[in-house]
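ok here's lipopolysaccharide heptosyltransferase II:
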Amino acid sequence: MKRVLIVRMSAIGDVVFASPLIEAIKKDYPDAKIFWLAEPIVKDLLRCDTDIEEVIEFPKNRFKQLWKDKKIITLFKELSYFSKKLKSYNFDTAIDAQGLLKSAIIAWFSGAPVRYGFKSKEFSHLFLNKVTDKGGNSQHISSEYYHLIRFMGLDNSVSLSLKLCSKAYDNADILIKTYDLNNGFIALTPFTTRPQKHWFHDSWKKLIHMLQSYFNLPIIILGSEADKESAQYITQGTSAINLAGKTKIDEAAALLKKSLLIIGVDTGLTHMAVAQMRPTIALFGATVPYTKTDNPYVKVIYHKFECSPCRRRPICANRFDCMQAISPEEVVETAKSLIKVNI
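and the structure:
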C-alpha cells in the first residue's frame, strides 16, 4: 500500500469507529499516504490527524440538490469531474468502510485497482474486489472495522483515535473560562438521529437535578443546532449550561476530553468520549451495546428486552420500553463509581 483512500463519509460515530484503520495501515506500511473521503460535517474531526495526508471533501449536499432540481446533465458532469479528481490521486488501494452502494461506487470511481469493503444488501460489493462480511464480535466497540483490518492482513492491535487541532482545544478553553468550568464539569450528550435511541427529556431533567445535588459540579449539554430546542427544555429550571449549537464538532470533542464524566446515548459525541479515554456512561436500548472497549472507564447501561435490539424497526408503538427501563437513579449510582475513579 502506497496511496490509500478510506471512504467513510459519515456519520460522526462511525468515523470514530473506523479510525483504527489509520493506525493499522501505518503500522504495516509506515510510508503509506492515507487520504480520507468525508462529508463536511465530519471533516474537522480528521483534518489535524498527522497520519492523514488529506481529507477530501465529498460534496453530498451539492449532488443532492442537483438531483432534487432535476439537473441531471449537470449532476453527471460534476460526478464525472469528481471521479477524475479522485483518479488524479493515483490510489493503489481504496477501502470502503461505509458498506453502502454509494460508498462502493466512490471507491470504484477512485480508480484504485485494489478495493476492500463489506458485503451489503445494496450489492455494493459488485464495485469492490476484496470483500468480507461484517464479522467480529458485535459487542466489541468498532468490531466490524477490526474485522476488516484482519481481513486486509493488517495488525489489528490498534485502538480508536481522535486527533484534534490545537485551535479546537483553545476554543474549548475559552468556553471553559467563559462558563467558569475550570474546576471540572460533567458533559451530557443526549441527542441522536433516531427517536428509539433517545432517553426521555424528563429523565434527563431529573438526572441533572440529582447530579447537581450529589456532585455539586457544573453540567453542560452538547448537541447540534437542531438540538437547541430540546436542550432548552432539558435545562430549563436547572443550572445546566446549554451549549447545543454553540460549538463546532471538534470543539465539542475537545470539551469532552476535558470533562470529568460524560453521560450520553448511542451517538457520535458519546463515542468520541470513549475514544478519548474519558469516563463515560453510555445508555443503550434499541441498538447493540458495546460491552468491550479499550477504555476501562466506560460503563454501559442496557436492559435487555425480548424485542431488543430492534435497531431501526421498533415494535413497541413508540413506548421505547428499553429506554424507559433506565432510571436516573441507576445512572447516578453508576456515575458515583466513575467520578471516584477519575478524581
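+1. Residues 166-342 form a domain with the Rossmann fold fold (CATH 3.40.50.2000).
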